[in-house]
UniProtKB/TrEMBL annotation:
Residues 126-152 are annotated as: Disordered. Residues 137-146 have a biased composition (Low complexity). InterPro entries: Cyt_c-like_dom (IPR009056), Cyt_c-like_dom_sf (IPR036909), Cyt_c7-like (IPR029467), Multihaem_cyt_sf (IPR036280). Residues 1-27 form the signal peptide. The keyword Transmembrane applies. PANTHER family: CYTOCHROME C7-LIKE DOMAIN-CONTAINING PROTEIN (PTHR39425:SF1), LIPOPROTEIN CYTOCHROME C (PTHR39425). Pfam families: Cytochrom_C, Cytochrome_C7. The chain crosses the membrane at residues 164-181, 212-235. Keywords: Membrane, Signal, Transmembrane, Transmembrane helix. The keyword tRNA-binding does not apply. GO terms for molecular function: electron transfer activity; heme binding. This is C-type cytochrome.
Length: 456
């Protein structure tokens, strides 16, 4: 019995030691925090105003826990209070809190009552020991490679066609020159009186025999020439594939494709006005005030991180932003962007009408006609898959025929409240007029082909 009590006591001591060890380990983990989770929380809540390695709107936070402990004798409990509500700490009369408040122009830090103590510990762990960044991966996107191969194939095909046309024209020109030279020789012989009558009769017979062929050939050449002139005139102002070099390199693939930035965040006029508008540099600075270097995983072939960093610096030069002092100098350099899409002055086009009223109808129509190339954003129907373009180019012809074809094939969404009410009588009339349409009405049926809709 005594032996049993002895072992029982040892078991209790072991259990107690185990529990205390587990508690201490848990407490240590809780105090230390999870840097990986802290990185996510930092980017979500703090990155707009803070960075680890430099001052932005607020001070740099790299090693802030150790720095405050060493320089001001403040521990994590002070940082917890400051992060939850900085103004409570300032109003309490805390000396260091008021120094920071004065230094940063009395701009209060946003309170974060939603963050738990563990969340804050994770953020502080990230500031003390940030995880190593993942190495940048070069672009090996199959979509990009496919697009590049298609462009090369189209260029090769166009080059071959051009060579065949030029070769044929040179052959015809050579034949005509030979005929002219022969005729010129005969004329000289006739004038000199040395032309053999028999030879002259043979030439006249040959001429009469092939006169019809010659006239037919001249007619064909005249038609081809007229078609060439007409085709050239028809393609004036059509620049499909046009992608000019811009003063500041801007990759839509990085901004839209990799970072999922909505088109209308920058092109806000597309939803509410006629013109989509080129965003001002202030729109760029909304993000790049806190993003002074590229840290993305995607890098375009032929480009480097240093190249992207240099382009960001061009934004700062254009806006007069001093990243060191986090202030504007007033010395700006306006950017002269090269316009890609530009409608003629006599054409009226309203972006809002297509982006808002026609959004569902346009997307459905495009996906129905292109089942292997579906889109999810209405902008892509006209501008192509911009989220896959490093350099934006004109993706379509934007000719009158191209627009009319779209109006003839795009069905109006008669299920939404506005159209159902506005076109109620017209809808019933059209269903009777076009019984085979099965109630499906296209844009041309509601005035989409009227001249005055698009031309002043």
């Amino acid at each position: 019995m005594i032996s049993w009590r002895k072992h029982y006591r040892k078991a209790l001591v072991a259990i107690g030691l185990l529990l205390s060890t587990s508690a201490s380990i848990y407490a240590q983990d809780a105090a230390t925090g999870d840097p990986k989770n802290g990185e996510t929380l930092f980017k979500t809540n703090c990155a707009a105003c803070h960075a680890l390695d430099k001052q932005l709107v607020g001070p740099s936070l790299g090693g802030v826990v150790e720095r405050l402990e060493k320089e001001h004798g403040l521990g994590k409990d002070w940082l917890h209070k400051w992060i939850v509500n900085s103004m409570d700490v300032v109003n309490s009369g805390d000396k260091y809190a008021n120094e920071v408040f004065e230094k940063f122009n009395k701009i209060p830090m946003s309170p974060f009552p939603n963050l738990s103590e563990k969340d804050i510990d994770d953020i502080l762990a990230y500031t003390s020991n940030p995880p190593a960044p993942e190495p940048a991966k070069p672009a090996a996107a199959p979509e990009g490679a496919k697009q590049a191969n298609e462009e090369l194939a189209q260029e090769s095909k166009a080059d071959l066609q051009s060579k065949l046309i030029i070769g044929s024209l040179l052959a015809v020109v050579g034949l005509l020159i030979w005929v002219l030279l022969r005729l010129r020789g005969l004329i000289k012989l006739q004038r000199s009186g040395n032309l053999d009558p028999e030879r002259a009769r043979k030439v006249e017979h040959l001429y009469n025999r092939f006169n019809l062929v010659g006239n037919g050939l001249m007619t064909v050449l005249a038609v081809v020439a007229l078609y060439g002139v007409w085709n050239w005139l028809m393609w004036i102002g059509v620049y499909k594939g046009y992608k000019p070099e811009q003063p500041i390199y801007f990759s839509h693939k990085i901004h839209v494709g990799e970072n999922n930035i909505d088109c209308q965040l920058c092109h806000s006029g597309a939803k509410y006005g006629k013109v989509s508008e080129i965003p001002s540099m202030n729109v760029c600075m909304n993000c790049h005030r806190g993003i002074s270097e590229y840290k993305g995983a995607y890098i375009e072939p032929g480009k480097t991180k240093e190249f992207y960093d240099g382009e960001i610096q061009k934004i700062y030069q254009a806006t007069g932003w001093d990243a060191g002092s986090q202030s504007y100098t007033g010395k700006t350099k306006p950017v002269q962007w090269v316009r890609i899409h530009n409608m003629p002055d006599f054409v009226f086009f309203n972006h809002a009408q297509h982006v808002v009223a026609g959004e569902k109808a346009i997307i459905d129509s495009h996906n129905k006609k292109n089942p292997n190339d579906k889109i999810d954003v209405v902008c892509k129907a006209c501008h192509g898959k911009v989220d896959e373009m490093n350099v934006v180019q004109m993706a379509n012809d934007f000719t009158m025929g191209w627009c009319i074809e779209c109006h003839r094939t795009t069905e109006v969404d008669m299920t939404n409240g506005y159209n159902k009410e506005y076109f109620a009588k017209l809808h019933d009339k059209l269903k009777k007029q076009y019984p085979k349409s099965q109630g499906k009405i296209t844009v041309d049926a509601i005035g989409g082909l009227e001249c005055g809709k698009c031309h002043y």
